[in-house]
Design brief:
64% helix; 5-stranded parallel sheet; 7 strands
Length: 876
């Protein structure tokens, strides 16, 4: 036997001391058996040699480097005994001459190790070279009856067929595996520094990740880096394709495999990860499971990706070499293998991998089918860049000729902010008729989602809505994934909002929010909440608007989505609510946040809504600036302007013109608007003009039909404003009783909603009326006091939330209190606050106790007195 087989190898000339692994070996050496199992080049021998060179072994050491010649029962034990003799230091120690029976050797070896003395550390390097089952049986027997002195350390590329689980459970073994041996980033840095190479930190990180910490890969890369004029470029492109790495892997790993195993390795190199079932699909062999199991326990080539052992992968650098060899040795199998992988991943609901393999197979019809079925879902989940790369790999003429691929390209461009995709969408829809029924259903839903998403920007709203309603009535079944349903419903709600159908918009946005919660998609929930807050505001559901807006902003701030249209919508909602409560400072804060969120003007309709809010805030200080703001935003929206937004913009513009003394222009603007066949009645604006012109009778006539029919097209704000104008006009006509009745109607509408600004905006005439109304008697004393305080200029500064209370209300108790003026039940309040009914009842008990009241009605009254209920939106 070669004497070199018994010598502890010297550590590499340049090495990195790895205390974490040396400490692990210290702990392992207290057990009878230590298994160091990892693929070739992982640094097994170097680690144990370093440990021994530092004198950390607990006793005497016997080292044996095994080879093919030791794959024989007698040869193996002869080598072991020879290695142990110096360590045991006994002349009459066990021997295995050619004719001695091996079954007598093990008892003799156990007897020798049982004699008093220090532990004996027996290291068996390259144990994977030994495969004879008789040797394994002998070794298992030795471990079963091992005396306390034995410390067996086995270094191998694959797990030996020993009863390892029994040894683990008995606490008789320790393990060090590939993931333990992988170099960390800090260890990589130390190795490169020890080799005197200059590598930037970013490149070190890239090198560590590309090699997955594989020791041989790092050293081979270091050899290639020596003298390289551009280390960054080398590291950036370094992979298994580097000649030094590929030569090493070919000679040390691939060429040593039997033909069947080599073919198995090449065919299973197509996917990045695989299971036993995928292996069968790729190899089309009935013994695929057996080959997978054999390779998993030999050479350490296959690494489990999860604890259950269901998924496996190859080392990334080894995988690159396998794929190169597959393309060289079996070129005709590459495309069919990718197709099999695509079909398998499709059945496993893994569209990302299915698309990648279908494109790699150049199977364009299969690619179109899978992409058409899944692209909307993938975009929602943030996989847009992957889809963009996949489509880039498909010839452009193929993409444009396929309705599914063309539509997917349009959707991805929309997601990236490119709006000019109408031609792509129209071409895709026109070419969709020949699609099979199942594929057509997915296409129709995807087309609807795309059209609705585009319609959010004010483009072809009516066409998008018609398409949506057709699809929703014909193809909307449970087979459609929840997140795609949520996206479609959310986009439908936004489109409906801009057409003026706020009630339907709110309903669909509520449904979208519920589905988004079910599928745990924060982005869709965020969008539904942000846009839903605007719809709730327009439908007079002010508390829901507040809750949804704050809910959207909570998600936006948590996930970094504050610079988006949905965040801007939420801020416009909160700014509008603050203005209605006559809190201009808070309104200005939210308007500023909305403006920052809309830094890129891709939402012209929302930008106009924001401009109208800003104009109201600056109107009293600089009406000319406010007028310019409104006209600029209206001009940017152009022909996209929906009816309700055109009416609101005209009313704001008319008010500003009046402030500037241009009553004739203001009147013409509103009269022209009134003549429009589908325009809402601009009664409030005309009444204000008539009052300013000294014609109170005309003002009363202007709002008479509006108030008598109780139409809600203009919302409660306009109705409160209209009653206030009616009251002012009647007061000018000396009809004090009629004026105060009208004012009471305005207060009836305003109090449950916390509306202060629609009253205070009318200035001194309202102040006089409110004072007389308080003396005469009103059912809304608290709100009337608020209005008077604001008109006297001290409303906001004197508001103190909890001052007179001995025990202040908590934030959640204040939130519950603010629901009490509404007609909502405890169950409905619980739903809005996302808490249980019992929690609401507990909060109510605390509220009643702290306010010293007995019921809900008294709580509202006391809350008004303490100014806890108005404005109701300045706190979150």
């Amino acid at each position: 036997m070669f004497a070199t087989k018994l010598v502890v190898p010297q550590p590499p000339p340049v090495t990195v001391r790895r205390p974490r692994l040396l400490d692990a070996l210290d702990g392992a050496a207290t057990h009878p058996f230590t298994l160091v199992s990892a693929p070739a080049g992982s640094g097994k021998t170097a680690l144990v040699a370093s440990w021994l060179s530092e004198g950390r072994a607990p006793g005497t050491v016997a080292w044996l480097s095994l080879g093919k010649e030791d794959d024989d029962r007698r040869g193996f034990w002869t080598a072991v005994v020879t290695a142990l003799k110096p360590a045991l230091a006994i002349a009459r120690g066990p021997a295995a001459p050619p004719r001695v029976r091996i079954d007598l050797l093990l008892p003799a070896l156990v007897e020798a190790l049982a004699e008093p003395g220090d532990p004996v550390v027996l290291v068996l390097d390259d144990f994977h070279e030994v495969e004879q089952l008789a040797v394994m049986d002998d070794l298992q027997t030795l471990l079963d009856y091992a005396p306390s002195r034995l410390r067996l350390v086995v270094l191998t590329r694959s797990d030996p067929p020993l009863r390892l689980q029994r040894l683990r459970v008995a606490g008789r073994m320790c393990e060090i595996r590939a993931q333990d041996l992988a170099f960390t980033l800090e260890e990589t840095r130390e190795l490169i520094a020890a080799l005197d190479l200059a590598v930037a930190d970013d490149d070190l990180d890239t090198l560590c990740k590309s090699t997955a910490g594989w020791a041989a890969g790092l050293r081979l890369a270091a050899l290639s880096l020596e003298g390289d004029p551009d280390p960054h470029a080398f590291i950036d492109g370094f992979a298994g394709t580097d000649h030094a790495v590929s030569d090493y892997l070919m000679s040390e790993v691939i060429s040593r495999q039997a033909p069947a195993a080599r073919t198995f390795l090449l065919r299973t190199s197509v996917p990045d990860r695989f299971t036993a079932d995928l292996v069968k699909a790729l190899t089309q062999q009935s013994d695929g499971d057996d080959l997978l199991s054999a390779l998993m326990h030999r050479d350490g080539l296959i690494t489990p990706l999860d604890g259950a052992g269901g998924w496996y992968s190859y080392h990334p650098m080894f995988l690159e070499v396998l794929r190169l060899e597959l393309a060289r040795a079996m070129p005709d199998e590459v495309a069919p293998l990718h197709r099999r992988a695509a079909l398998w991943f499709r059945t496993q609901d893994s569209p990302h991998e299915a698309i990648r393999h279908a494109v790699a197979a150049h199977d364009w019809d299969l690619s179109a089918e899978i992409i058409g079925e899944h692209w909307v879902h993938l975009v929602i989940r943030g996989e847009g860049p992957m889809l963009r790369d996949a489509l880039a790999a498909i010839p452009e003429d193929v993409t444009r000729a396929s309705p599914e691929l063309a539509l997917a390209l349009a959707g991805i461009q929309l997601d990236a902010g490119v709006m000019d995709v109408g031609e792509l969408i129209d071409g895709a829809i026109a070419a969709a008729d020949p699609l099979p029924e199942a594929r057509r259903r997915h296409f129709d839903i995807a087309a609807t989602s795309t059209q609705l998403y585009r319609a959010r920007f004010g483009r072809e709203l009516e066409d998008a809505l018609r398409a949506a309603r057709t699809v929703l009535s014909g193809h909307w079944d449970r087979a459609v994934s929840q997140d795609v349903r949520a996206l479609t419903l959310g986009s439908l709600g936004v489109a409906e909002f801009w057409t003026g159908d706020a009630s339907s918009a709110l309903q669909h946005l509520q449904e979208a929010a519920g589905l988004a919660r079910d599928c745990e998609n924060d982005y869709l929930l965020f969008g539904a909440q942000g846009w839903g807050s605007l719809a709730a505001l327009r439908t007079d559901q002010l508390e829901e608007a507040r809750v949804r807006a704050f809910g959207a902003l909570d998600i936006a701030e948590l996930r970094g989505w504050t610079k988006t249209a949905a965040a801007a919508a939420a801020c416009v909602t909160l700014g509008s609510l603050a203005l209605l409560a006559n809190d201009p400072a808070t309104a200005a804060q939210f308007a500023g946040r909305a403006k920052a969120a809309l830094s890129v003007p891709e939402e012209p309709l929302l930008a106009l809504s924001l401009a109208l809010l800003e104009a109201e805030l600056v109107a009293t200080r600089n009406p000319l600036v406010a007028l310019d703001m409104v006209r600029a935003a209206r001009g940017a929206a152009g022909d996209l302007l929906p009816t309700f937004l055109r009416v609101v913009a005209a009313l704001v513009e008319a008010d500003l013109l009046m402030t500037l003394g241009e009553s004739a222009q203001a009147r013409k603007l509103l009269v022209d608007l009134d003549a429009h066949e589908d325009a809402s009645d601009p009664a409030v604006g005309l009444a204000r003009i008539e009052l300013a012109s000294g014609a109170p009778e005309a003002a009363i006539r202007a709002v008479a039909d509006f108030l008598a029919d109780e139409r809600d097209a203009m919302g409660p704000t306009a109705r409160v404003d209209a009653w206030a104008l009616d009251a002012i006009a009647r007061d000018e006509l000396r009809d004090e009783d009629g004026a105060l009745r009208a004012l009471e109607r305005a207060l009836d509408l305003a109090e449950p909603r916390g509306l202060v600004w629609p009253l205070t905006r009318n200035g001194a005439p309202v102040r006089s009326l409110v004072r007389r109304h308080i003396r005469r008697g009103t059912s809304h004393r608290a709100l009337a006091g608020d209005v008077l305080a604001h008109l006297d200029g001290n409303g906001a500064s004197e508001r103190q939330s909890n001052g007179p209370l001995l025990e202040p209300l908590t934030e959640r108790e204040i939130a519950v209190l603010r629901f009490l003026p509404t007609m909502m039940s405890n169950t409905e309040i619980a739903s809005e606050m996302f808490v249980s009914v019992n929690t609401v009842k507990t909060h109510l008990k605390h509220v009643y106790r702290k306010l010293d009241v007995a019921d809900r009605r008294d709580a509202v009254r006391r809350g008004r007195e303490l100014r806890l209920l108005n404005p109701g939106i300045t706190e979150h």
